[in-house]
Amino acid sequence: MKKLLSVCVFALLLPLAASANSKFQQGKHYDVIAEQTTAKAEVKEYFSFYCGGCNAFEPIAQSLAKKLPADAEFKKVHVDFIRAASPEIQNALARAYLVAKSQGKGDQVASAIFKQIHRNRAPFSNENDIRNLVLINDIDAETYDKAMKSFSVRGAANQMKKEQDELSEKRILTGVPMLVVNGKYKINNAALDKRNMEAELQELVNYLLQKDA
């Protein structure tokens, strides 16, 4: 009986031991920014198409999204505080990305937008410029035009703006790209090993996804 009790206690202590032995430290690799986790597992990236760092990070973000556990979702939240374009153009870009994502082409269109801004050095002057780029990336014109004006897409873009403002006011969102896991843990990118960033980031994200499980 005593032996069985010892085995049970050891099993209960395993998660605590694993947590204690983790190489990732609160306050260094990540910060706690909320008391509760989201109802569903998620990794959220706050970014801007006009951010050079976000452009460089995009391949890592797309790779990370593909390697998440099946029950976790990767979400992108576009911010508009980088003063490289008007708020209207930045809102249109956010909506264009949301439309592309709904059509299963989010990564393709995001990469095309980044390329247009950072490699081609061809800024968007108006919403029609954005439309033209999206349409050559295999999005049907009628589908795009209808979705861009839809309540769901406009509502999702407005939600991005709301989250941006709330986190900025709390001084949590101070720059991009920024990753938040399960709505509770903000990853500190500067603490990651630059020589092995993608692999270490994947490890840290998986650790945080399981932290409250």
UniProtKB/TrEMBL annotation:
Disulfide pairs?
A: 51-54
Q: Does the keyword DNA-binding apply?
A: no
**InterPro entries per record:** DSBA-like_thioredoxin_dom, DsbA/DsbL, Thiol_disulfide_DsbA, Thioredoxin-like_sf, Thioredoxin_domain
Tell me which residues make up the Thioredoxin domain: 11-153
Note the Pfam families from the entry.
DSBA (PF01323)
Alphabetized, the UniProt keywords read:
Disulfide bond, Periplasm, Redox-active center, Signal
CDD domains assigned = DsbA_DsbA
GO CC annotation terms, alphabetical: periplasmic space
User: Which range is the signal sequence, renumbered to this chain?
Assistant: 1-20
Q: What is this protein called?
A: Thiol:disulfide interchange protein
Organism encoding this protein = Rheinheimera lutimaris
The beginning of the lineage is:
Bacteria, Pseudomonadati, Pseudomonadota, Gammaproteobacteria, Chromatiales
